[in-house]
Amino acid sequence: MTIDFDRFQKSLLDSFCKREALWKVHDAVRVYDESALPLVIEKFKDYAFLTWRGEVLTQFEEQRLAHNLKTVWSKVFDAPIQAASLLHRPKANLAFKESDTRWILGGVSAERSLWVKEWGLPYQIRFMGHAHPGLFLDHRELRRLLSEENADGGRVLNLFAFTGSLGLAGLHGGYESLDQVDISKPNLEWIRENFREHTKVHSCEKRMQVFAGDAEFFIQRSIKREEKYDAIFCDPPSFARKKTGEVFSVLKSYPTLIENCLRLLNQEGLFMFSANLEGITHALIEGEVNKFARILGLGRPTFKRLSGDKDEFESSKGGMCGVIAKFR
Ligand SMILES: C[S@@+](CC[C@H](N)C(=O)[O-])C[C@H]1O[C@@H](n2cnc3c(N)ncnc32)[C@H](O)[C@@H]1O
């Protein structure tokens, strides 16, 4: 594709200025979302993580992208940009290679990771070697709600945990122990690192266990063992390749996932389901929750609907769609 860099620079400036109310308050903000180019830019303090969703860029195009970013950044923000990493991630690509991320600004001396705070809680952002920086920004409001839950102890299960952020927000919301499940072993190490920092901000002791493996297998095994949880968070990917070679699809799996999660939920528990795929709507999720809650005798929940902030995620198709169901 031919990139019109003049148009890009203008749209970058517009996007940064439009989101002023956000970046003035938050360490971690999406500052650009596919306005003129298939590009997402997330700002973590004075660092940027760029995700490029188009055809592979040439070195010259990467340099011009970096130059434009640096110029506009210096016009808008008080501090200069320290470094920017770029992830090449064409839309249909499920596989990820370490070489898909590289520095386009800052380079070798730049930090590979950085701690940011959100609602007073620390999360580690990684710029190199991962398909995502580690914090889904469209979940910011969800993490706030979970961290303000005022639960009086109890067990949390966080499925498809990634870096564990939803579970960790839940611990801050008063739950006492947390099981985090993810299929990727490197993610579990990231979760542990985040947990270590989180324990420094809690006034009482919290417990966390991590499980490496398939979430659906973990759920089945827990049902057999008659385990129960007071809160369950389930935020699956849209698609993922399993170890068996099969492709997990949330559109196919969400009714069974919801049913089986509810089998593990205590009476008066909290259930959160979210997805990011056109076709999965709040009404669909609530319909499944109501259906299985009735069958399983959990009663009628109250629902809270969540979506990513429109201004911040302006041209994302579909977007984050989450529902918190409270059975109390
Ligand atoms: C959409 S992310 C989850 C985001 C996470 N809830 C958060 O808020 O940061 C998807 C995660 O699911 C994990 N995953 C993919 N397939 C899985 C499976 N079959 N079982 C468990 N985890 C899986 C991936 O490793 C990835 O970390």
How would you describe what is shown here?
With 328 residues, the chain is α/β, with parallel strands linked by helices. Helix content is 32%, strand content 28%. A seven-stranded mixed sheet has the order 10-9-8-11-14-16-15, with helices on both faces. It has a five-stranded mixed sheet with strand order 1-2-3-4-5. A two-stranded antiparallel ribbon has the order 6-7. The longest helix has 18 residues, at 59-76. 41% of the residues are buried. S-adenosylmethionine binds at residues 136, 139, 160-163, 165-166, 181-184, 187, 214-215, 235, 237, 240, 242, 248.
**Sheet with the most strands?**
7 strands, mixed
Q: What strand order characterises the main sheet? A: 10-9-8-11-14-16-15
Bound compounds, each kind once, are: S-adenosylmethionine
Write the element-wise H/E pattern from the N-terminal end onward: HHEEEHEEEEHEHEHEHEEEHEHEE
Mean pLDDT: 93
Q: What is the CATH topology classification name of the largest domain?
A: Rossmann fold
What amount of the residues lies in strands?
A: 25-35%
What is Rg?
20 Å
Total helical segments: 9
In terms of structural class, how would the helical and strand content be classed?
alpha/beta
CATH class of the largest domain: Alpha Beta
Helix content: 25-40%
CATH superfamily label of the largest domain: Vaccinia Virus protein VP39
State the separation between the terminal residues, measured CA to CA.
Answer: 54 Å
Query: So what's the overall shape?
Result: globular
Count of separate structural domains: 2
The CATH architecture term of the largest domain is 3-Layer(aba) Sandwich
Low-confidence stretches: none
The number of strands is: 16
